[in-house]
Design brief:
By secondary structure, the protein is α/β, with parallel strands linked by helices. The chain has helices at 15-29, 49-61, 76-82, 96-106, 123-135, 148-165, 170-175, 179-185, 191-195, 202-212; strands at 2-5, 32-35, 67-72, 90-92, 110-114. It is globular, with a radius of gyration of 17 Å.
């Protein structure tokens, strides 16, 4: 599994702490972690939580990442932004129980964390516990296990609803947005070197390259 970490501007100073906790857990399972930043509050490329959603959608739909870890001050804005795009199911996660039940019941591919609200002493440990429970088992198995069949059925129903709700392709959605907003989402220092070699969607890659040219 390839996991992408995205930080927006208000919580960029915590990037190193978050990346360390995520990589520590990912290494235990043999997963790869790509850090898309922001890396510091002073980065030239400033991401808003709305742009987190734009970037996450490209990573997941383009196949450059299998999972996205992101957030903002409360985690709410980032969650809403990510869920505004097709191919992304993002849960709001505050603790290890949230992480485990979201993975097992909702079987999503992204989480949004509150990196300011409640992030005090032991915040780094809480991150580790969250990531441990998020990735400790294959997702979508159901919780409790006796509820697995209806939960898996509901997840399939949700996927079909989202297919109807998101009729446009991702590139067309991007083209309907302010192009400077979209371009800014891909302006990170390491975006090109991380994304383009791994992206499996030629149309998406071509659009982003033209945007950045």
């Amino acid at each position: 599994m390839r996991i992408a970490l995205i930080n927006e501007n208000s919580q960029a100073a915590k990037n190193e702490t978050i990346f360390h906790a995520l990589k520590k857990v990912a290494d235990q399972y043999g997963y790869e972690v790509d850090n898309y930043g922001m890396y510091t509050a002073g980065d030239a490329a400033q991401l808003t939580y709305v742009q987190n959603g734009i970037l996450a959608a490209a990573l997941l739909n383009g196949g450059a990442a299998d999972y996205v870890v992101t957030g903002c001050g409360t985690g709410e804005g980032a969650m809403l932004a990510l869920n505004s795009f097709p191919g992304v199911i993002c849960g709001h996660v505050e603790d290890a129980l949230d992480a485990y039940t979201f993975a097992q019941i909702n079987d999503g591919n992204a989480i949004a964390l509150p990196f300011a609200k409640g992030f005090g002493w032991g915040g780094d440990l809480n991150l580790e516990y969250i990531f441990e429970k998020l990735f400790c088992e294959p997702s979508g198995q159901g919780y409790p296990r006796e509820r697995a069949v209806p939960e898996q059925r509901n997840k399939k129903i949700l996927d079909e609803v989202r297919k109807v709700a998101f009729k446009e392709e991702l590139v067309e959605i991007y083209q309907g947005l302010d192009q400077e907003l979209v371009k800014g989402a891909f302006a990170g220092e390491k975006f090109a070197e991380l994304f383009f070699p791994k992206c499996k969607d030629e149309k998406l890659a071509a659009y982003i390259k033209s945007l950045l040219a």
